Amino acid sequence: MNRPPGFFEQPIWTGLGLLVVCAGPLILLAGIGGYVPDDDRLGVVVTGLVWTPLTVVVLVLAIFGTVRDQRVWRDLDTAGVRVTGKVTSAQRVWCGEDDRCTRVRMLVTVPGRPPFTTSHLVAGEEIIEVGTGIPVDVHPTRDLFRLVADPSTGGASR
Fold first, then answer.
1. In terms of CB atoms within 10 Å, which of 57, 83, 109, 142 comes out highest?
2. Contact at 8 Å (CB) between 107 and 88?
């Protein structure tokens, strides 16, 4: 589980989302406000009436998704148990045109629950070795977890 991204941490998706959310009401406003020729007005108004509910649905889904992600994050903050995940494999991969990352596979053992494996892509040039311990917050009763520190920043235990 990753921290929910901030509004400006995903500028392309934010821009596309704003474009979709604003499209329906703007088309409807243009049709009703007389900004289109009379011959096309009916088509523009109908298009605006179709797109406006769609934009409302997109906006509601985005808001509820963000609220859910923040609730899950708070659950891990309040009830999370800190354990150490053991790196079982680490492979250097490309994660962009010029960027290198490490694909880390870990075994996480939680008291009172069966162990599980997880895989993460860690940005940076630092090499993470097999056997390295990385702190992980795990919810004691639900299937929620997150890395405590990004290993490339040196915040993880070794």
1. 83
2. yes
